[in-house]
Amino acid sequence: MSSVTDPAPPVTSGGQPLAERTSATPKQLHEWLRQMLLIREFEVRTMQAYQDKKIGGFCHIYIGQEAVAVGCIAAVQHADPVVTAYRDHGHALARGMDPKYCMAEMFGRIGGCAKGKGGSMHMFDKPNNFFGGHGIVGAQTPLGTGLAFAKKYQDEVIDGGVNKHVTLCFLGDGALNQGGFYEAMNLASLFDIPVIFVVENNGYSMGTSIERGTSMSHRIIAKGEGCGLTGYEIDGMDVVNVYEEMKKVADIARAESRPAMVDLRTYRFKGHSMSDPRKYRTRDEEQHWETGDPITRLRDAMIEGGLIDEDGFKALNKDQKIAVREAITWAENSPEPDPSELHTDVYVEKFGPYTGTSQPQIVTDAEESR
Amino acid sequence: MSITLTMPRLSDTMEQGTIIRWNIKEGQEVLSGTIVADIETDKATMEMQAYDDGIVAKILVGEGMQVPVGTPIAMIAEEGEDPQSIASPDGGGEKSAEAMTAAPEPASIEMPIPPVATSDTTAQVAPETTSGGRRKISPVARRLAEEHAIDVSALSGSGPGGRIVKRDVLAAVETAGANVAGAAGDVLPVQMPTVPNVSSQTLVSTTTPMVHHVPALESTEVPVSGMRQTIARRLVESKSTIPHYQVKMRFSMDTLMELRKSLNEKLAAEGVKLSVNDFIVRACALSMAEHPMFNASWAGDRILIHGRVNVGVAISLPEERGGGLVVASIRDANLKSLRMISAESKHLATKARDKGLATEEMSDSTFTISNLGMFGVDDFTAIINPPNSAILACGAALEQPVVRDHQLAVGWEMSATLSLDHRVIDGAMAAKYLGTLKAMIEEPMRLLA
Amino acid sequence: MSERIIEFRDALREAMTQEMHRDPRVFLLGEEVAQYDGAYKVSRGMLEEFGPRRVIDTPISESGFAGMAIGAAMLGLRPIVEFMSWSFSLVAADPILNNAPKMLYMSGGQFGCPIVIRGNDGAGGQLGSTHSWCVEGMFSNVPGLKMAIPAFPDDAKGMLATAIRDDDPVFFLESERLLAMKGHVPEGDHYVPFGQAVVRRPGTDVTLVSFGRPVHFCLDAAEELAKEGISCEVIDGRTIRPLDIDTIVQSVRKTNGCVVVDQSWSFGSPGSEVAAQVHAHCFDDLDNHVMRVHSADVPSPYAANLEQEFLPNARRIAEAVRSALYVA
Question: Domain range holding C77?
């Protein structure tokens, strides 16, 4: 088994023509490529904006891991809840959040998905069933179990039918060491809750390599197996592979109403956060993983399969650059939250300083489009 | 064994004492019974005597210093002891400065505060009147005191550290309330510059309420007019800044009353009706030639003696005009005849009561007369009308039993009380002025000249 | 007033069953709530009545099942989480403090968290330090949650029913020492609005403010003080968040005195909050600073006599009242 810090060849899946290894339509493949390009460009501009001091606080970049969010989310239905940790821009965009809401949130503007109250680590998108964006490592794992529990409860107890939903609960390999995660897995298993714990195993919890911080790092799915969860190890650098494998995992979880744990091997090309000098790993290791860039892999496979050409790719990429530029302009033009917003959204019911809520743009737009 | 003299407790309420004067010196021999020092207590200056024989070894507290009762103030060497070898009780020499305080100026010595009756034993703590220079008082006690116009500086606090608390104020309100109830029926005409010294002690206070005879009184607020505010401001200023004192003399009015009667009969056809006050105005005015200090003003670093004699006459205003009082000024009264003074007085009084006086008719008085004789008052004191340095308060001319030529007889008498600014006029001067006045009043023919 | 007399614990159960019948989104989960009938028999019979899908035994896993319930609440369910003791909530601090009360705000109003977390709170049973937590001091510090703490059986029902129907996270603090207390409890729908304190005993000399079990200590102290001619007005705050400061202020304006009795530790507590607010609202009505009676500033002891002394008992309350009135 390959170790992350003892670089294995990044390409462990694929090789055959696309048509032979996926049922995805050309339209789907185009969409995944578009999403990954959007996330990549979005994150590049996010780094730039952060360095221009337009974004504050902690900011975690998703570059390198695009295939995970895009492939996993493509493998489930829109009604299936998704929840993740603080490296959440990619998931929000893959879930369908308009990049302008995402960017405005980081800019601390009223147009942000949470009206500027959440920030980079706390993206929420109710119309897209995206439940955050959680800042504390592992905190989202019991929530993920709860979201899946609620869907099952609605399907079975309230509606009197059978479970129709799965929940994707993303976590980093750093969260493997949090107690809450084990409680979440234990409860999910005990109560037959269809939640899929997707470990985005990028090899590092901040600056600590997985070998230094996690027992059984060569086979982390053993931790889920200890709770009775079926474990899967998946190459996370190939979006087609992610999609195909995750679809199977999701279908089983949905059908059997059972939780699962997935070890998705990936790599973050940038630091843990914007203030990470990456002294804990070598440039060689980074270059090794960069040769397996998920965008390049899909592009090359699609060109090989005749699904796109160089010009088409450039045009698609340009469109994403335009979309991100527009998002930045929109965010810059979005006003700062009115000072009165400080006191809204504290309680659903009024008392004390609570003066009600104002709907974020994201919800207003979703309601209008109905 | 040396003997320590400590600050003696020389009154029942004494907490601290000030050494006014040492009558002994270091090295001097003292005998039991020797008056070693004069000590000022909270009530008086007392003598402190020695109880032992010996030599004064050390004086620990200097003259003018105030220390708590019990503080060592001197050391006495007993027979056979070397005074030089005696150390002060705390091992040091002179008492350190922080242990004692310079005695306050006499004017700022706090009056002993009568303790408010209380069932609380902790209230026996000596009232600490200030905390960092500020009176300790609970918030609601302060508010209640303001609402009931209770002067908290006169209260003793029963709370911790002498804090004035709610019950202290409520007790004071109750006490004050009893007095107000007694005073309610006692209506005095507002008459500047009468001293409102008809204080609670003189008012009827009965434990048996007689409410069934009296129409119910209503608590209410009355807005304060501009005039009332002026009166309040000026009289507070006068009474609190001028060192007032009073000198009183009784005048025999027999001759004056007879002369007045005679003149009024003769001049009735001319519309002349002289009042007793007209004579007094004239007498006061004429006396100024001999006593210029009574026609003067204190000016801080100088005394201004006025060249003109303008006699102010207090005039009470009718209730329907809002009450209050004004002082009309009879200018150059020393140059005016009785008839002129009478006419001008009547004119000013009528105008004051009907329409009000012009500013110039009220300004520039140099001496003031307040007369409550027409109300039957026989004796009162007045507050000086600044910037005057004296005011004369006249009672009624009444028939009294008098002693004339060693015989008891009936005669007309009037009481006249001068209130004086001690910065300008001393007691003897006041006595002489009243003597001059008495001569004029009792030989009124001089006023006709 | 209902003539029916039931126990505090039955009143709690009635609120839960009533709301579970009314709303299928409501369910109960916690340790031993189902087959065991509840560690304190609050949920006795509920498993039979609603089945295992809605009355759910959890393993001893507070962080896990509290977090799970919060996730379910984000999706619109209305979980009732029973902590056997609020002392056990500390291992679930992150979900109950970092998620439940902040979700609405962090999501810009998109996701609320209509959850009720209830359980025993406070010392009194010789349980020692780890099991005698009074969490109101710590947790009331957090905006976004509500905190209810009933002292009487009718409030136990009315306030829990209100808590379940409330759209915000409600921390519901019960006392093991009160569960067997009997009282008149209305049958059928009974809701006690949050943020409305109630005067349990009218008086004129001093206002006693308390929450939960210590309200009874206050009533005992008031009875004792009445013999000395001191008339105490006892206010049962009922909810700490929202705090009904108006009722308290109204009373203090009348009595000019205030003693706050709170079973949590004094430092940064509901008691200190009430004191601060009373000082701010009616400073000029106070004859003394607001006095506070708390649990002693030490870990909860085990020995019975020490624990009695530790609690804000009637004797300590009476001492504070005398001191407030300058008669101590």
Answer: 5-184
